[in-house]
Amino acid sequence: MKEMAKDKQPSVAIIIVNYNGTEDTIECVKSLNKINYDNYKIFVIENGSSKKPSKEQIDYLKGKVVYIESAENLGFSGGNNIGIRKALEMGFDYVLLLNNDTTVEPDFLHILINAATDKSNVGIVGGKIVFYGKPSYLWYGGGYLNEKSGGGSHERWNELNPPDTGDIREVTFITGCLMLIPIEVVKKVGLLSEEYFLYAEDTDFCYKVIKAGYKLWFCENTLVYHKVSASTGATSAMTQYYMVRNVLYLTKKYRTDYHKVNARLTYQTIKDVIRGRKQVAPVMCAYRDYLKGNMGKWEI
Questions:
Q1: Who's near 185: CB < 8 A, 6+ residues apart?
Q2: CA distance 266 to 73
Q3: Among candidates 281, 214, 206, 287, which has minimal Cα distance to 244?
Q4: Which of 57, 80, 143, 233 is an S-S bond match for 173, by CB 3.0 to 4.6 Å?
Q5: CA 139 to CA 225: how far, in whole Å?
Q6: CA angle, corner 106, sides to 101 and 107, nearest 5?
């Protein structure tokens, strides 16, 4: 891996959104403070948590990061967009979106930046992510825009993490858990779309970036550890609601064959409800709001 002198390193704004997960956020920041890349600044967006950070936690973060408080929960996109706007104002070369419930290996940012500077027509760079609790298994090993479901899909999910190859390959979906984005791409395609509030906004951004003519690159030899849905719960009613409503909306927004795609999604959703994998109430609310065009935060 080639090294860069600090004065030649591209500047990176690392953006972390905190919602009811301050302990995780602090662990993430501590791991970032050990990376072997110098030209970066961490921005923590306190996104209107209902479980407020303690004074000691806030004092710690303010001593390590640029700490920005939002009076309300603006969702994934809204929270990240606060940090992205600040990065634009301050003239950073890249923004790095990183989930607060992650920790990183010291070389992860060097690897991502090397890919971003080596490859052509870069829109987003992502990397390998494993489960925090079982690090031998992949959570994200590359991704693609799923032609059948319309959403973004993870390659090799829950498979054993193979030996690092050093490969950098083109993909069509990169998870918002870890996205390195050149600031010029943000200037061209715009900020993250905020109508989703939670889930599918990373897929939306991938669609936008690809439509603008850029490529998405995945690095096989990074390593990030993810606790997975620490703030929302992987099977909560809220998660089920947003995943159903937002994928229906996303497909209609970007696919000419959305009727066919959404019919398949509806069939699968009905099967999941019958089998007890999804709850009836949030799914019904998701379809109601999709048909009415109600986006943004779910008003239960």
A1: 122, 123, 124, 209, 212, 214
A2: 29
A3: 287
A4: 143
A5: 9
A6: 115
170-206 in b/e form (b: 16+ CB < 10 A) is ebbbbbbbbbbbbbebbeebeebbbbbbbbbbbbbbb
With a CB cutoff of 8 Å and minimum separation 6, the contacts of 169 are 142, 217, 218, 220
Low-confidence ranges of the chain (pLDDT < 70): 1-7, 229-234
Angle at 240 between CA 239 and CA 245, to 5 degrees: 105
Separation of alpha carbons 183 and 94, rounded Å: 5
Q: Is 232 helix (H, G, I), strand (E, B) or coil?
A: coil
Q: Hey, how many other C-beta atoms are within 10 angstroms of the C-beta on 33?
A: 10
Per-residue DSSP letter, 162:
P
For residue 157, CA distances in Å to 112, 127, 154 come to 21, 14, 6
Q: In this structure, what token pair is assigned to residue 30?
A: 């501590």
Q: How far apart are CA 192 and CA 205, in angstroms?
A: 6
Distance, in Å, from the CA atom of 157 to the CA atom of 143, rounded to the nearest integer, reads 10
